[in-house]
Specification:
With 152 residues, the protein is α/β, with parallel strands linked by helices. It is built from four helices and five strands. It folds into two domains: 31 residues; 102 residues, 2-Layer Sandwich (Alpha-Beta Plaits), CATH 3.30.70.
């Protein structure tokens, strides 16, 4: 039994192609709405992926524990911080209670370097004490609380 294609037959019984087209447009609209309301966001770069500033410091033992400045210098090197020298503070009898960063010279990009040094070490305290003949722009003075920042 064949049916003749008449205008009446076509409007009464929509074909499979019309249903397929409707489904396609509904899916396309749904995908478009998802992209509009939930756009793709680039994952943020981790701090470890960011370029590390070139930092040179002097590490000074202010807590009286033998060889601790050298050990801390090795740990800092693993973090990308270069210790030019290490040793005891000028007055070995002076014991520092708190570990601190000392800014000795002004330099370009110093704020970023200081922020990176604070992030790497966890040391928040810093003082600015410029010194004309300083080897580096930063000094790290290890106090009795150094163990909070550096593991043996």
């Amino acid at each position: 039994m064949t049916r003749a294609m008449t205008k009446k037959n076509l409007t009464e019984n929509p074909g499979k192609s019309q249903n397929g087209m409707q489904l396609f447009f509904v899916l396309a609209l749904l995908i478009m709405l998802i992209y509009i309301f939930y756009p793709y966001k680039q994952p943020q770069q981790e701090a470890n992926d960011l370029p590390k500033p070139e930092i040179y410091i002097v590490v000074l033992n202010g807590c009286g524990i033998a060889n601790i400045a050298q050990e801390v210098s090795k740990q800092l090197l693993d973090q990308g911080v270069n210790a030019m020298t290490w040793g005891n503070t000028d007055n070995p009898n002076c014991i520092h209670q708190k570990t601190q960063i000392v800014v000795r010279q002004e330099s370009e990009n110093q704020a970023a370097k200081l922020a990176y040094l604070q992030k790497v070490t966890g040391i928040k305290e810093f003082i600015i004490a410029h010194k004309e003949n300083s080897l580096t722009e930063f000094e790290l003075i290890l106090g009795k609380d150094y163990i909070n920042y550096f593991k043996k």
